[in-house]
Amino acid sequence: MSEIWERINLFNPILSKAKAESKNEAIQSYLQQLWQMDNLILLIGSGFTRHINGPLMSDLSRIVLPPIILNCFNKYKADQMQDKWFILWDIDEKLSSVINGEENNLAKISALESHCDKINIEDKINKLQTIINALETFNEERQIYIEALEEIKKSIINEISKITPTLDDSNFDEFIRNLEPYRIFIKRMIKYRRPQQPRIKIFSTNYDKVLETACDLDGIICVNGFDGKNIRVLNPTVFDLELSLKATGQSSIYYSNLLHLYKLHGSIDWKKVQIDGIDEIIQDINVGEDVVIYPCHTKFADTLEMPYCEMFRRFSDAVSQPQSTILSIGYGFNDDHVNQMLISAYKNPSCQFIICEPNAQKEKPTSSEFFNSLLRMALTEYESVTSDPRITILGGEASKFPEILDILFPPIEIESPSDQIKKLVKQIIKFGEG
Fold first, then answer.
1. Strand order in the sheet with 289-292
2. Is the pTM of this model over 0.85?
3. Which segments of 20-150 are extended strands (E)?
């Protein structure tokens, strides 16, 4: 454990002042107090699933774009389109000669991968959408851009679908092994909570089904806003229902193995279909139109529509509750619509923030101005001006998941009342025998 702490960069204007010999113990005690605040809120992004090959935006650029760029080029080789197509993708003369050369497609794809690794896929989706809107309807050139955009969206969903293979997939056993830290993480989170406390609420910007699968394997009920059996239809009121156990002749008992999952940007298994002439959102991977917010400049506008507006409304409601802790893992603070909710949370005086950000460095800002402002508030030297002890940032390689797991929720045994009684009975028996 101490080796992990040595690789953690801690930013908090008060905790950072603790003496070296007592700092680890002080921080651990502080975190345990936060997990038992009335409301525990987890915000996760693409970095959370990196351990099981979940793609970051840069990965999607490198994987998704090269074949699409090359396929469209081969399909529409007209001279008037070449220059426009290459300009769109920032392809220089050297790379252009490779694409136009005698090399096979694999060599061309390889060259494009290195190039696309530096491309921001969100910017390109924005440009494609702008071009499509600007060109006339039924324009042949417009159709090329429409096809490219649709192919990008389809490929993004396909790539993220690969994270959680099906039971008949040859990679399923390996996936289950790699999923173990996520299963431990969820179980420890639940175990650290006191009986009768409000449910843990997880807000995710990811499309994947990692958390749902982890819960399924351990019998943890993951309430995600859908109900039904054969046809699971979006019904957000299920978040307001409560579950309890009741044995014959006894009063109801709080059921602890349950959490709430809100997917802010949709999911790979959310589809829009018509049922009885009404548009409904269902859980199905085989039919209907994808219901996800793709990485583009219209993300904020998209959140104003169902089902995203309902997820964000509940996010806003959760962070406004008194005595709340927000734990962020793998979120890059680059989505303005999510950051706006965090600003609201900051205005809640009893809200505490724990942020795991590997790139957090005192002298080197990240690409997110929003995160940089949080970092300044967590630095000791700004205590007299803008620092805020409610913000704790854990940086460095050890702040990545799953390395950060034992820092946040160490593997200590938290005994249930029944375990404590069994232990007491054993002590009494042993005392009697003595």
1. 226-227, 233-234, 278-283, 266-275, 289-292
2. yes
3. 39-44
Per the CB < 8 A criterion, the answer to whether 379 and 12 are in contact is: no
In the predicted model, what is the mean pLDDT of the chain? 86
Residues 273 and 293 in one domain: yes
From residue 1, how far is each of 157, 223, 398, 401 by CA, in Å? 38, 33, 11, 15
- DSSP secondary structure letters along 290-311: EEE--SSTTHHHHTTSTTHHHH
CB distance 186 to 218 below 8 Å = yes
Span 44-73, pLDDT tens digits:
999 999 999 899 888 999 999 999 888 887
- 316-347 pLDDT, tens digit each: 999 999 999 999 999 999 888 999 999 999 99
Give me 381's structure tokens: 């030297």
Q: Are residues 104 and 250 in the same domain?
A: no
314 and 373 together in one domain = yes
Could you tell me if 234 and 148 lie in one domain? no
Task: Judge if 36 and 67 occupy the same domain.
Answer: no
CATH number, domain with residue 247: 3.40.50.1220
CA 95 from centroid of its chain's CA atoms:
35
Its domain, for residue 74, covers 57-161
Contact 34, 408 (CB under 8 A): no
Alpha helices (H) in 354-398, listed in sequence order: 369-378
Token pair recorded at residue 287: 């039919």
Residues 117, 93, 107, CA angle at the centre, nearest 5°?
55
Helix axes 140-161 and 121-134, enclosed angle (nearest 10): 150
Q: Helix H segments across 117-265?
A: 121-134, 140-161, 172-178, 180-191, 210-217
What is the residue whose two structure tokens read 């709080």?
Answer: 254
User: In terms of domains, do 267 and 358 share one?
Assistant: yes
Judge contact between 263 and 207, C-beta under 8 A.
yes
* Residue 431 belongs to some domain of the structure: no
Structure tokens at 128: 């494609």
The dihedral over CA atoms of 328, 330, 335, 336, expressed in degrees to the nearest 10, equals: 20
Q: Are 288 and 227 in contact (CB under 8 A)?
A: no
What's the number of CA atoms in the CB half-sphere (13 Å) around residue 123? 9
Of 426, 406, 377, 428, nearest in space to 3 by CA: 406
Counted domains in the chain? 2
Tell me the three state secondary structure of residue 263.
Answer: strand
* Total Cβ atoms within 10 A of residue 79: 6
181 with 293, same domain: the answer is yes
pLDDT at residue 434 tops 70: no
